[in-house]
Amino acid sequence: MRTWIIAAALAALALGPAARAQPAAPAPAYVSALCVWRAVPDPVRAQVLAAGPGVSDLAQALQTDAGAAVAAAADACNVPAAGQAHDDHAQALTFLVVEAWSAARLESQYGVGEASLRQAWANTPAVTRAEVLKADDDPTPAAAIAALAPMTASLDLTVDDAKLLVAIYASVRLHLAAIGEPG
Known about the structure:
Blueprint: H1 6-13, H2 27-39, H3 42-50, H4 55-62, H5 65-75, H6 84-110, H7 114-122, H8 126-135, H9 142-147, H10 149-154, H11 160-178
Helix pairs in contact: 1-4, 1-6, 2-5, 2-6, 6-11
């Protein structure tokens, strides 16, 4: 099943099949994905994180040398061979890249530092998180943006693009938690 943000990110990364709504990719998928993301050279990571302002710009950035750098970085990590474990790894890598990108865009465009963003997310109640996860099945992010209104207000964000970036960040945080990201 494709979700509104994860589907776009997976298409951008061209790393594997569409994200599935099922929770529970094993923690090793997160570990291998984190290894790959950290192994991407800093200048390439910076290029990816600076892509913007939209997801389509992230997709375009990943179609350049960044995509080759991610593939080369995978050689240095314990990335599973083709199959379900590889698909889970690709999904985890997608989530990591989109999380980093959305946080970077919020900082560069709106002055929201990572610590403030993480704190606002930590203060987001479980019921709101559940609404955001449910909204992933919607074709647009409107329900997630609405559910996250208190979070965006706490960050003093009023611009629609900033609200979208918060919804992307929140959705990806939920998916990372579901696949075993330690926190």
